[in-house]
Amino acid sequence: MPSDSQLVASSIEEMLVSLAGGIREAQDALNDLPAFDSFGRPSPTYFIPHLDFEFDVEMRTETNNQGRPILKVWNPGSNNEQESKITSKISGRLVAVPAGEGVPIPVITMTITKQEGKNIEIAITARNNLGDILVGQQVEVNVDSEASKKISAGNNPALPNVQFSSAIVTTDENGAASTNLTIGSGGGAGKQLLLVATMGPSSAKLLIDTGATS
Length: 214
What we know:
Elements: H1 4-31, E1 50-63, E2 69-71, E3 82-95, E4 106-116, E5 119-128, E6 138-143, H2 145-151, E7 162-164, E8 168-170, E9 176-183, E10 192-199, E11 202-209
Antiparallel strand pairs: 1-2, 1-3, 4-5, 5-9, 6-8, 6-10, 7-9, 10-11
């Protein structure tokens, strides 16, 4: 059986969650504003950094003849039930926290640095969103076969054979790493390969046209 305090805490929780949801919806609406005005000039952007709030809360719990607490709207005509009143003031601040709860987020980039026929050299860099170099981080590189087949629409969905010189690389003191991709036979010409580099929750994608490597 939930206590009076549990019932009140649950109601306050729902109220704060509803308020936070309203702030998020308002920020989403601000984000959807046009980036440019009718003259092609950049429009101002808006961000809600925090919201101060204060509520005067009055809740009444009633206990019926069976001893069960019921949270309900105050009914002055109630004669056969005991009621208790809780009045308090709730104030606080809801603060917008950046993605990752304020912790720097890893960012991976993947580019082609050299291409000779079917041999492709791929460069990978790892930093965080503050620009700090990430040293000694392992990055895994793979081909997203399903996505590549969807991109390479045609009568022959098969992909060419591929081989990485190293599918797992480690970033050096500059936050950089590299691997070589060799495209083999099979799959037909003009296929698209979608490469994915993954480091923890972060990833980067690179699209390669096998028709340009012949």
